[in-house]
Amino acid sequence: MVTTPKTIDCFFQESMVTAIEIATHGDKLAIGRVDGSLSIHQTLDKSILFEHEFDSKIIALKFKNNDLRVATENGGIWLIADGKVNEAFTFENGLLSSQIDASVVGIDSLENLHVFTMGEDINLGEYNNFTKSLTGMLASNAEGEVVNFSPSGDIVWKRTSTDQYGDQITCLEHSGNLQLIGREGSSVSELPSYQLEIHDENGLKHTIDFTRPVTCARILSQFKEDYFAVVGDFDGQLYTISESGQKNKFAKLKYPAFHIIDLIDGVMVASWFNLQSFDYQNGELQWTVEHLGITDYVSVSTNRKVIAFAGEDQNDWTGSEPVGLINLENGLIELDKSELTLWASKEIIPEYNDDQSIYKNLEDVEELAGDVESSFKVEDISGSLLDALNSDTENENSDDNEEIFEIDDLLSEIDETNSLKAQPQAVVSEDIIAQSKDDGTAVVLLDGSESVDPHKQIKVWRWLDSNGNEIASTPKAKVKLNKGSYRFTLEVYDDEHRMSSDSLSVQIR
Fold first, then answer.
1. Which among 139, 101, 146 is positioned nearest to 123, based on CA atoms?
2. Tens-place pLDDT, residues 257-297
3. Which of 3, 214, 263, 475 is the most exposed place for a label (fewest CB within 10 A)?
4. Are 378 and 372 in contact (CB under 8 A)?
5. DSSP states of 367-384 as a string?
6. b/e per residue, 181-209, with b = 16+ CB within 10 A?
7. pLDDT (mean) for 434-457
8. How far is Cα 290 from Cα 322, in angstroms, rounded to an integer?
9. What's the average model confidence in pLDDT over 464-487?
10. Separate counts of helices (H) and strands (E) for the chain
11. Whole-number Å distance between alpha carbons of 205 and 260
């Protein structure tokens, strides 16, 4: 069993999400998308409060009281107030990335870093990465130079590369009067390859060696007794960092950390498809949330109780992934690990009376209402190859026997190659045993998300019951079952119509 937040609301999307923002009190959620569409939702009932279509991708959002500021890829900075959209400023060369608070900071298409404050656009020079807080900003370039800027764009200090062969800056963190810099040196350098630097307003204070690249860092809003920051490395190891420059192991993830955010009683980490929270005192896991996509975007309310997250699975054959909304005010629950993505399930479970149960025992299976026929037809590839080979053979000189191949052997070789090298592999979860509820039914999750294809091109998913009826066409499917025994089969097809299948059994007691 796994501990997870009791309340996770789902906001389904038709277009890829590129920015999210939770309002200060957690009562509103803004969602920006790659097609320029924006929606603002009431978090209590998920109702839509406002919608608008911008003419380019939305790259940043920021609430201030009841107003929302929006940055778009074409360089526009917009203010939404009282239901009206007003353009505040336009960066001439567009924007690759942006961060908004009291001022607007962004990198344009020429990789120039700009600060727009007090009605003035200040060009700070060429930089490819930055991070910003209310007290200042760190920016880095491709040569490993890092500059600490004041909120108005004045240089506080400048760090040049410590490696004659050049540094790669792997992470930046700025908060208050402290800054953290992760660096990766050249493989031919005599310096340690991976380090974390601690700076203050006067420059470098400490350097800490690591065995793997530092991928992200967080300076806590309230320092703990023996540490002030948490960092993660490429192997998923989390460390606490003391003000004296000492690191200690804190917790271990399966994958590298993307974001670290401090909550009221724990550190929340976004890693691959997971959000996890760890206890401040001992690093023990408090709860886990599993997303259908990579957790690229995370936004948290001021009281650290309402958390929005989003991201895509980077699979061209699946639709846009939903936005999740966690409310920690409602407590935690225990779930089976296979149920962690139920919050994002789009399968509709119909209500049936006794004569319309969705499934009976295997001895008395009833068909689902309305047979579902797949529009995807598997062609007879072997037959087509045989026809082509026969045609080619007829045109060959029958007297030239030195290079004649046996068609059966060639087809066998082709089939073997397709099977071993190109065929997708359906993989389903282990057999399921579930306890029914008072009404004699149980909802179970059929999980085929571990299915793989050598070319990452699974095009069709088909879940079939024991009668061959198609019941779902997604990697994961929820089904509501009466007491009894069942068997389900998953078929996966790639874009060349190659198919494989795998099955599992379900028992409802």
1. 139
2. 999 999 999 999 999 999 999 999 999 999 999 998 899 99
3. 3
4. no
5. PPSS----S-----HHHH
6. bbbbbbeeeebebbbbbbbbeeeeebebe
7. 84
8. 12
9. 85
10. 2, 41
11. 23
Helices 381-394 and 407-417: angle between axes, nearest 10 degrees: 140
Q: What is the DSSP string of 294-339?
A: ---EEEE-TTS-EEEEE-----TTS-PPPEEEEEGGG-EEEE-GGG
**CATH number for the domain running over 2-344:** 2.130.10.10
pLDDT at 167: 84
The per-residue pLDDT for 157 is 94
Delimit the CATH 2.60.40.10 region(s) of the chain. Answer: 354-386+407-508
Distance from C-alpha of 133 to C-alpha of 114, rounded to nearest angstrom: 15
Between residues 474 and 505, the one the model is more confident about: 505
Model confidence at 502, in pLDDT bands (50, 70, 90)? very high
pLDDT on residue 423:
80
Place of tokens 């259908």: 292
Q: What is the DSSP letter of 422?
A: I
* The pLDDT value given to residue 248: 96
Beta-strand runs (E) in 73-135: 76-81, 84-90, 97-100, 104-107, 112-117, 120-126, 129-133
From first CA to last CA, the distance across the chain in angstroms is 19
CA distance 147 to 134: 16
Tell me the one-letter amino acid at 347: E
Mean pLDDT, rounded, for 197-221: 94
Q: Where in the chain is the domain with CATH 2.130.10.10?
A: 2-344
CA 273 to chain centre: 5
Q: What is the largest CA-CA distance in the chain?
A: 90
Question: Which tokens belong to 77?
Answer: 């900075």
pLDDT of residue 415: 53
pTM, two decimals, is 0.71
Q: What is the pLDDT of residues 424-433, one digit of tens each?
A: 889 998 899 9
In sequence order, what are the beta bridge partners of 410? Answer: none
Q: Where are the alpha helices (DSSP H) in 153-269?
A: none
- Domain 354-386+407-508, architecture per CATH: Sandwich (2.60)
Calculate the alpha carbon distances from 419 to 98, 138, 408 in Å: 47, 52, 16
